Amino acid sequence: MNEQIRLAVNHFENLLRQQLERVSRLEETSQPIDYATLSPLVIGVIGGDGIGPLLVKQTRRLLDFLLQDELDEGSVLIRNIDGLTLARRQKLGQAVPQDTLEAIKDCHVLLKGPTETPKGGSLESANVTLRRELDLYANVRPVSLPQEGIDWTFFRENTEGEYVLGSSGLEIDGKLAMDFKVTTDAGTRRIARAALEFARKNGKTKLAIVTKANIMKKTDGKFSRLVHEEAAAYPEIEADDWYIDIMTANLLNPAIRDSFQVFVLPNLYGDILTDEAAQLQGGVGTAGSANLGDRYAMFEAIHGSAPRMIEEGLADYCNPSSLFRAAWMMLVHLGKQGAADRLGRALEICLESEKRLVVTGDRQGARCDQFTDYVLETLQQL
Ligand code: IPM
Ligand code: MG
């Protein structure tokens, strides 16, 4: 047992040193990239696993239409990136194969289909690896229910918390297992500022800080305290603390839920709460997500690769609106406001006001390609 303890302590020391090095890198300030100065602007598209390639193929049809002029004149380039499949990742034993990572880093922004993550084992999730390697620290997830006056935007911290060492826990066989949660000052301050800046720019006056600081006293305690410190520079924004358990209840409570606007929360709570929020909007198949860093940005659905739909032969009935919304977020992020507004308007018509075709995820509903035809036809009329 003493030997096992010694090995565990060594392991922990290595993790601590690695994390302190990461903190030093975070403390170096970086300037956000200015897309307007890039020519060509390179958008990488990655199919991923399961229903991913289908979703990406259909989303690409919308982008080809919306960015036609820029693509023709060469100021925007859409580049296919292959090689991020589970089979290849497993064969190479790399969460993101080295050559694929290099191809990804040659792009400015990415549109990505879901990738599959095996449970247990040692292969890290490709998502987690990409978020870390590209330093995509803000996971922004909007959810809206216009008929109820709900317009929420979640700022999920995306590079630390329970995820950063999620594949580096330790175990003493037959006795116990431990995972680690890491919250850094620099990591917390930057997600806080991202949420506060968004609130300011969009005229939002309420920020909900969601933690479990009564139990996770060090990590969540720090998160809450530092968000409040950053919020002091935004006097028009009221920052309030909520615990994650009651917040999951509040999202189901019509008497209170329309009062929330912007949320900021550590990684794992953000993962869970945004699935719940997406379900209220119509399901995870309807929700898009932006992973933003200062140098790179990646846009994706909030759901996984749906292996069950593939097994049941239902892949063609998958809902592309998650990735359509992600594409909308990408256009907004790139400053392509005209194209973004058109797509936003078409999605509003096809998903809310007109709903001539509805995707249900089974044979009762429209197929993914049929729904895309519908959105394209709608776009052509705008
Ligand atoms: C998400 C997903 C990922 C996560 C998985 C695929 C690793 O659930 O983007 O929310 O846990 O972050
Ligand atoms: Mg999730």
The poorly predicted ranges are none
- In CATH terms, the superfamily of the largest domain is Isopropylmalate Dehydrogenase
**What is the radius of gyration computed over CA atoms, rounded to a whole number of angstroms?**
21 Å
Oligomer: single chain
The count of domains is: 2
Which class do the helix and strand fractions yield?
Answer: alpha/beta
The CATH topology name of the largest domain reads: Isopropylmalate Dehydrogenase
**What kind of sheet is the major sheet?**
10 strands, mixed
Biggest sheet: strand arrangement: 2-1-3-12-11-4-5-10-8-9
Instruction: Give me the count of strands.
Output: 12
The helix-strand sequence is HEHHEHHEHEEEEHEHEHEHEEHHHH
SS field, number of helical segments: 14
Overall pLDDT: 96
* Ligand roster: 3-isopropylmalic acid, magnesium ion
User: According to CATH, what is the class of the largest domain?
Assistant: Alpha Beta
Q: Per the principal axes of the C-alpha atoms, what is the gross shape?
A: globular
The CATH architecture of the largest domain can be named as 3-Layer(aba) Sandwich
Content of β-strand: 15-25%
In helices, the fraction of residues equals 40-55%
Cα-to-Cα separation, first versus last residue = 70 Å
Commentary on this structure:
It is a single chain. By secondary structure, the protein is of the alpha/beta class. It has 2 domains: 31-136 and 293-382, Isopropylmalate Dehydrogenase (3-Layer(aba) Sandwich), CATH 3.40.718; 140-162 and 173-288, Isopropylmalate Dehydrogenase (3-Layer(aba) Sandwich). 45% of the residues lie in helices and 17% in strands. It has helices spanning 2-27, 52-66, 68-73, 86-92, 98-105, 126-133, 185-201, 219-231, 244-250, 267-281, 307-311, 321-333, 337-353, 368-381; strands at 41-46, 76-81, 109-112, 138-145, 150-157, 170-172, 176-178, 206-211, 238-243, 262-265, 288-292, 297-301. It has a 10-stranded mixed β-sheet, sandwiched between helices. The protein has a two-stranded antiparallel ribbon with strand order 6-7. α2 runs parallel beside α14.
